[in-house]
Amino acid sequence: MKKLVTITFLLISVFVFAQKADSLLVVFPAKYNLELKGKQQNQLQEFSEYLPKNETFENYSIIATKLVIRNGKSIPLELFRDKVVEDTKKDTKNFKYTELKSTENALIFKCESDYYIKGRDKESQIYFLTKGKNDFFINIVALKQSSLPKEFVDEWYKVYNESKFVE
């Protein structure tokens, strides 16, 4: 019986951890010269940050972030969005939320505010949430500004809208 339990556990483990991770291709506009500056990863998630080539986390003009939650497909997009909105509203001055796109498997929205109450740093973001076959993807691009220029929003809406899952 002990051998049967052990074998069953091993088979289940192999199945769960052998599932192929989803891969979302997001092509950043070349003019920003974004490169990977930080990456953390484990079996449950992957977190990547991209900055312009000659900038640092202390002096960036734009930052793009990708968070992948492995086997997170069951997370409701709206639940994540609502938590982002709630937290950002609480932590900023003159918060403004705008939904740009909402479908069954994707949300694009922007969060703008005058500044963060702690630190008084300006930063406004565009979020792109989507799901693959198994994974939940959170993509964010941010500028250190109180509001995002229309051209920037249109450009990144197109970037996110044209992203695709690849094998």
Q: What's the short version?
A:
The protein is of the alpha+beta class and 167 residues long. It has three helices and eleven strands. 19% of the residues are buried.
Overall description:
26% of the residues lie in helices and 38% in strands. The protein is α+β, with helices and mostly antiparallel strands and 167 residues long. The longest helix is centred in the N-terminal third of the chain and has 17 residues, at 2-18.
Task: Produce the secondary structure layout.
Elements: H1 2-18, E1 23-25, E2 34-41, E3 45-52, E4 62-69, H2 77-91, E5 92-93, E6 96-102, E7 106-112, E8 115-116, E9 124-131, E10 136-143, H3 150-161, E11 164-166
Antiparallel strand pairs: 1-11, 2-3, 3-4, 4-10, 5-8, 6-7, 7-9, 9-10
| Regions with little confidence, pLDDT below 50 for 5+ residues | 1-18
Strand-residue proportion:
35-45%
Provide the residue-averaged pLDDT.
87
- The level of helicity is 25-40%
The rough form would be described as globular
CATH-defined topology: Protein Transport Mog1p, Chain A
What CATH architecture do you see? 3-Layer(aba) Sandwich
Number of strands: 11
Q: CATH top level?
A: Alpha Beta
User: Major β-sheet, in short?
Assistant: 7 strands, antiparallel
The end-to-end distance, rounded to whole angstroms, is 40 Å
Number of domains: 1
Number of helices: 3
